[in-house]
Amino acid sequence: MEERKPITHITAGLVIAGLVIVFAIITNFLGLTQQKSLGFLQYLLIIGGLMFFVNQFGKANNYTKSFGDLFAFGFKSTAVFTSLYIVFIIIFFLLFPDIKEKSLEMARQQMEQSPNVTDEQIDKGMEIARKFFWVGVVGGSLLVFVIVGAIGSLLGAAITKKQPHNPFDQPAV
């Protein structure tokens, strides 16, 4: 078989982060952040990217990697793109504070639509949302991306062909 240079998890993470960041910028500036289906599209983009890169990693290693090796590659890629995305989202909200205010206002509107919530509860909820905004953004992004990354890594490792070397098949010396 021909010798292939394996792709690194850093490269895979950078490419996926780039795709997700471009997608986030486009949806924010086009005002499409309220559409839930686009959020799911972002997760499918991550899962599809991980499956592609895990498969390419297996292919570059002549499919000799085990399920655990392939999953680890995908999860390390997840760590890279999650870290980059969190840095991006912090910088993005600092550069565009109006987007933070719009997201808080959307949260207020959703609370106002609920008939069981009083104005006092809405004000208290908004106070808490403002106080813990950064914890919610960073923690929420971290949690969701790690879960989605684990799913993508599992699927990528599962669909990649595996022909690991058996250590007992080595010729005697």
Automatic annotation (TrEMBL):
Keywords of this entry: Membrane, Transmembrane, Transmembrane helix
Transmembrane segments: 6-26, 38-58, 70-96, 132-159
Keyword Transmembrane appears in the UniProt entry: yes
Protein origin, superkingdom: Bacteria
Keyword Transmembrane in annotation: yes
Protein name: DUF4199 domain-containing protein
Annotated source species: Flavisolibacter ginsengisoli DSM 18119
